[in-house]
Each structure stands twice: as C-alpha cells, then as structure tokens.
Design a protein that fits this description.
It is a single chain. By secondary structure, the chain is α/β, with parallel strands linked by helices. The chain has one domain (2-98, 113-149): Alpha/beta knot (3-Layer(aba) Sandwich). It has helices spanning 14-27, 49-61, 82-94, 112-117, 131-149; strands at residues 2-8, 33-38, 69-79, 99-104, 120-123. A 5-stranded parallel beta sheet has the order 2-1-4-3-5. β3, α3 (82-94) and β4 (99-104) form a beta-alpha-beta unit. The relative contact order is 0.24.
Length: 157
C-alpha cells in the first residue's frame, strides 16, 4: 500500500521542512510514501470562496483515482487515537488498498465534492491548525501509527 500525503497550499515552510522530511523518511521504512502539494488557484485573490474551493477540489480530484481510499482532515471529522489510526492503516493494508490518501484542505476548507468523495473524515482536534503545522502532525502521527503496528518503542501509552 502506498501512502500519499496531500495538502492544498504553498510548498512546505522552510522552518518545518526538515521535521516533515524526517517523519516522511521514517514512514518510508514501513510504506512507500509521497507528498502531493496542490497549489491554490493562481487567481484565488479575486475569486469568491466557493469558486476557490471548487477549483482546489477539481485539482485534487485530478490526482485521485476511484481505487484510492481518501481520508479528509477536517475539524468536524472523527477524533481518533493514535492506536485507532494504526488500526485504520492495518485495515487498509489488509484490504489490499493500493493507495491511502490523506488530504489537508485549503485555507477555506474543501469543496463538497471532496467531502462526499472521502471515505473517512479525521479530526486531529477541535482546534484549527495552520496548514504547515497540520502537515507536520500528519506525518508524525502516521509514523507513530506505523511504529504501533510493529510494536516498536516510539509510542508510549
């Protein structure tokens, strides 16, 4: 199973790049992993919010296939523990899911098209995080889930 970490927005912040890269590299010891950064529309400043979300949604959909399992990150999603995330990874691997896509939406959220397409909506917290912090938390949590699956010492109960 391949894991794609997808985020709408600018490239990784240089201040967080090293940490994001570190956790991404660690994940690669368990699963093939890649980042997909989908830039916001070039004319987003003159577009209304719904048009921005629709353009971003279309851009993301161009990178997702019907076979992909899409996990949308949204503060209105289900709050799960790290062991529950590990169970999700294991379940998808057992089901021979070819690609598991985790999506961090744009600054205004995501278009309804993506909300409907997502098979699971996950919330880190009721708090809202800046996208760059969310990317780091996502990479770290997926790495943590991988170590839980292998019963390694990174995660402490």
């Amino acid at each position: 199973m391949k894991i794609t970490l997808c985020s709408i927005g600018k490239p990784h912040d240089p201040n967080l790049q090293k940490a994001i890269d570190d956790f991404t590299q660690r994940i690669s010891n368990y699963f093939p992993v890649e980042w997909l950064i989908v830039p916001p529309p070039k004319n987003a400043a003159v577009m209304n919010i719904e048009a921005v979300k629709k353009a971003e949604g279309s851009a993301v959909m161009n990178h997702i296939s019907k076979e992909d399992f899409l996990v949308l990150l949204d503060e209105r999603g289900k709050n799960i523990s790290s062991p529950e995330l590990a169970n999700l990874l294991q379940q998808k691997a057992n089901e021979s899911t070819k690609r598991l896509v985790f999506l961090i939406g744009g600054a205004f959220g995501v278009d309804d098209l993506l909300t409907k397409r997502a098979q699971f909506t996950w919330s880190f917290s009721k708090l809202v995080f800046p996208h760059m912090i969310a990317r780091l938390v996502l990479a770290e949590q997926i790495y943590r889930a991988c170590t839980i699956l292998r019963n390694e010492k990174y995660h402490h109960v």
